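Record format v2
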Amino acid sequence: MLSFVTKRLGQSAVLVLIMSALVFVGMYVVSDPVAVLAGEDFTEEDRLALAQELGVDRPLFLQYLSFLGNVLQGDFGTSFVYNRPVMDLILERLPATLEVAFFAMFIGLVVGIPLGVYSGLNQKKRSTKAISFFTTVGYSIPNFWQGVLLIMLFSVWFKVLPASGRGDTVDVFGVGWSVFSLDGLSHLMLPALNLAIYTICLQARLARSGTQEVMYQDYMTFARAKGISRERIIRRHLVRNILIPIVTITGLQLGGLIAFATVTETVFSWPGIGKLLLDSIHNSDRPVVVAYLILITLMFVTINFVVDVLYALLDPRIRYT
Amino acid sequence: MKTALAIIGLSAALTLPAAAQAETLRMAFSSAPRSIDPYPFGGTPTASLKEHVFEALVAADDSPLLAKSWQWTSPTSLEVKLRQDVAFHDGTALTARDVVYSACRMMYLIDGKRNLLTSSMGPITDVVAADDHTVRFDMKAPYPLWIQKMKFLSILPAAGADTPEGPITYDDQGDCGGITYPTRAEFEAGAAAIGTGPYKFVRFDKSGEADLIKNTNYWGGAPEWDEVQIRTIGNAGARLAGLLAGDFDLIENPTTEDLPGLKANEDLTYTAVPSWRSIFLVLDVNAEGAKGVRAEDGSAPLADQRVRQAMSMAINRQAIADRLFGGEATVANQFSPKYRAGAPELAELPHDPAKAKELLAEAGYPDGFEIDFYAPSDRYANGARVAQAVTQYLSRIGIKVNLKTEPWSVFAGKRRENELGVFMYGWGHPQGPAQMISFAFASRDKELGLGSSNYSNYQNDGFDAAMKAWAVETDETQANAYLGEAMRIVVDELPGIPLYYQHTIWAHRADLEVNGRQDERTSATTVSRK
């Protein structure tokens, strides 16, 4: 297990290094922060002074080296646009994204898995066909369009849920959370639902195919023959065995929800890191983009690692040596 | 301390809605203000927010605001009399000392970063409080544009900082006898966000949210709204949905497509105001040839005035305004809007494709030539579509156009590297009607601040002489006469091609009246109940 961890850590470090270099070079090639930030009345001297302030007047590899040096000391740099430490900006926005991603994932699992197991067990029922139809549609609707549809439905026609923003937040551990206030929760509903629909459908389909496969295994027949109650068979034997693919997908999807909730955050004006990333790319705010993508890489690496460990817990046959 | 603040914030949040119901104005901006500190950042959203809280000596339309009047006592010395009935939000009265302090703060580099006027205040040698309500600006050379620039110098209270005893002595490092200024964080937390404006600061959040409350002691009379909530929604569809859902009373910049729907909706409507932003093409007229412009004989077609006139004639400006903007754009016949005070009167630019073809043939390009035409895709309303229309108009007279629309961040970099031979651009003219041509078409002159954006590589002695005279002329009428002369020359020579002036559009509840500003800013002071 220990050598597995160290090997993983080594790979992650290399991955992050490659990522940062790619993004750094990419942003450098594509856009020029001085041109974006300079006023029209800036003389050439003003522009040079601005480039010096931003630290972009030096050759690219020197910029990159000093960036790496700073990162090793925990300093991800200062945003060109906001003049504030990048980590502050990201950490300020992160809770909003985590909140909506976890909430959506929670809805997705709680609704999706039972739906899937139910339709796997009752293949011929009419309700199963309805579920199957719903999951196919929900799985294929573009996220963006679906968000606008939700707004039309719940905000414009029924006027029951607000269309945008975070609402009132309640401070817990010094960070504002929407989920703890009624107003905040009502703001959270639509973006979370928009993210959750896809998750529900995906989980339901995974759980259904898993159920269908596991149901006809010999050990299921044996368990039934032994006279174990139906409920116990489902909980102990069926669900546990279909969980492995579900855990994999859930892990990756959670990462996806956090990293790429951008579309949903845009539609619902949810002030999370996705919106920050978009704005920063738009403003060629390189420090923010680079730091964000490094963090996201680290997050995916961590999630994958946790998933691997979970496998071992779920399936006694898997051992890391 | 933090907990105490949190409790105050929470109780405020709980008690506000009840008191607010009818008197709160909820506005949605289309992009986020960057700070409540009025000094480091320009940009329309930041200015829109800060002008609720802070005011300058000069108003957006160049009329006196916190100043009562001003006078040039010599070509290099401007004396400004202050209003005597103005108080800051903390209760202290506005005096000349506050203006000197504000000038110092503008020159003070926080974290080594420059402020809005750091370079514009270069010619200012001294700022002196002559008496309690008189300020004198001394300059090393005549600098009449300072009056327009002063609108960016928001006035802050000297009492908000740690200042030495006695009068403040100005210097261009902002040290001024050892002042300790409030930090950005103190502005954004609200402690230092004290101005003289109609609304007082309550809360600011970097995602573009701000809450403001009425300044009951405002010198200009009681403001219309008890509270103002500003939110930012970048996506136009989501912004409109927020208005339809009743989350907002007013939103910025609905799309042209949404206007008919707003007209049909009886609860909502929109207000469109011609803005100072003019949209135009820039042509690199360099006789050596321009990047991305190719003629078969290797010559430089854009250097020929007839070619530029032909390009101008090819474009049907009225059709662009009518079809692409649903009528919400004004056809341009010069480079600053004709309705911007001080702008000259000029004849309409003709649309005549047949004549345009003749002119091209006369110039030696009967079969046209080829250009790469660049336009920012995400900067101006309907920008990419206008660029497509222009491309088609130019194709019709035989010019082969390769249209390249690019995101602003990419476009701006290429422009700075002088890689664009023909491109589309826009100027907002907050500093008066001469602002654009003085930067974009004059020969570079660092002392007078001319020609810093001359990407046309245009050079004309008559024009330069007029601009140089304009730059040092303190008499307004005479300055406008120089401007008129300069404008006539560039509109005749066309180192750029004017297209149209944008309209700023606000969609809002039908029972509100919006007296929208021409400088594109959104302000609660322009919104009233019918």
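Chain B touches chain A through 54 residues (CB under 8 Å).
The longest helix of chain B spans residues 2-20.
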